[in-house]
Amino acid sequence: MRRTPRSRARGTADRCATGRGSAVARAADGSDAGEPATAGAHGDVRTRCVRRALERGLSLATAESLTAGLVCAGLADVPGASGALRGGVVAYATELKRDLLDVPADLLAREGPVHPDVALAMAAGVRRRLGADVGVATTGVAGPGPSDGRSAGTAYAAVVGPGGGRVLPLHLPGDRAAVRAATAHAALALLAEVLEAPDDAPPGGSPPTDAPAPGTADPRSR
Description:
Blueprint (H helix, E strand, L loop, with lengths): L22 H6 L11 H17 L3 E5 L5 H7 L8 E6 L3 H8 L3 H7 L4 H14 L4 E7 L13 E8 L2 E8 L4 H20 L27
Parallel strand pairs: 1-2, 1-3
Antiparallel strand pairs: 3-4, 4-5
Helix pairs in contact: 2-7
């Protein structure tokens, strides 16, 4: 039975407690940053996302800033993706995050567009706007220089579903292309991890016990 979207999920910061060997943990510190967007494990993680979404009867939507559609395009590359993928929104400009994805204006004014709570709000907003069960979002600074007070390579990937939200802080090396590709890969890896949770666990999962309160940033992610 298809699960329907619920009200905005509560956001929590994900510390990548899955360990250094996981795809999510490798993406967070940039050790997968050199992997091309269409190669090897990246293609595999796209397939895992679509296959598991189809198995669970879940629909997906993407909200992207610095990746500018790479996550949505990656999912769409998988045969059968139309059974799970609702669509995507590229909100590159800050005001579009507010107007198209319902990111609170006061949050954007206070923290800027590159912030964990903004990533969570983007994922929640696209989930609601596109009528999807699970939303995945990216925001960050691709470089070459800093922007909005954040250094190049700073990014966040977030996933929000009926069970809550998870956000992954990223600190990535490389040029613009490498940072964008690695951010897209990290978002897909996080989405796959959420979707591959046990069937009785709603997508999004429960927050870690040491996660910060909703609406606050984990200082370790700065």
